[in-house]
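To the structural biology subgroup,

Please find below the input and predicted structure for ABC transporter ATP-binding protein, which we are adding to the shared reference set this quarter. The sequence is reproduced verbatim from the submission form. If anyone notices a discrepancy with their own records, reply to this email rather than editing the shared folder directly, so we keep one authoritative version.
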Amino acid sequence: MSSSELAEAQVESGGAEDGAVRLDHVTHRYGAVTAVGPVDLTVPTGEFLVLVGASGCGKSTLLRLIAGFERPSEGTVQVSGTDPRPGDTAGVVFQTPRLFPWRTVRGNLDLALRYAGVERARWPERRAELLARVGLEGTEARRVWEISGGQQQRVAIARALAADNPLLLLDEPFAALDALTRERLQEDVRRMAAQAGRTTVFVTHSAEEAVFLGSRIVVLTRSPGTVALDLPITLPRGEVDAEELRGSPEFGELRAEVAHAVKSAAAA
Ligand SMILES: Nc1ncnc2c1ncn2[C@@H]1O[C@H](COP(=O)(O)OP(=O)(O)OP(=O)(O)O)[C@@H](O)[C@H]1O
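Predicted structure (tokenized):
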């Protein structure tokens, strides 16, 4: 069996590489601007990787490469052992929810379920499941413009989960939300990731958010971004009291270490 046949077989059978990400010597340029690279990075199945770095260091570019929205100028990107395909490889959540505001929550989710190829007879059950996962039970009939920014971002997360991809990519999804809503959503995403065993790559500016969410943190240098720090996070990941965790000395030390690394990497 060739390596590509093996990769295909693994994807079909939900193999060991499902949702795993591999970047080999990846550089990306926009015209004359080198945005990132070279970056070598392997994200095993089930890991929650947070990419942190100063503005413009290439975090979004890396995420776009993993999603397949861009092809690398040099090097290779593989997801689940194969080339990423935009729209199919991963569920993606952006900084703003990008929903259809005049449609209902149901309408927005149905579009995603249709695109994901879910049989129409299963939509009601799947919709209820997705809304329960993001804490939005009973909101199906509400129009998007009627619900809060935090609720809209929850719908965007539910939509990204509609296809049940083994990889979820989030690009500063909570940046536009107030502090309390942001903390609540962080807690929900952390819990969801721990339950699902899905691979997650999350982009943020915030050392605090990175330490709270990640099982591993990669800090990038300033543009063109390369890996400045690769740090496993050993904080407990099961059912935890979020406030206790955020207040623990270990959390404080990790946050300080990451914040310091981001500052030095941006200045280097
Ligand atoms: N479509 C594009 N065309 C030209 N240059 C781009 C494009 N997208 C990004 N860049 C440049 O590539 C570099 C990396 O941008 P990118 O958006 O990936 O960084 P980022 O770390 O996500 O930034 P931020 O945190 O501010 O969102 C920057 O210099 C940016 O100006």
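Summary notes: Confidence is low (pLDDT under 50) at residues 1-15. Residues 30, 33, 35, 53, 55-61, 223 surround adenosine-5'-triphosphate (CB under 6 Å).

Regards,
Lab coordination
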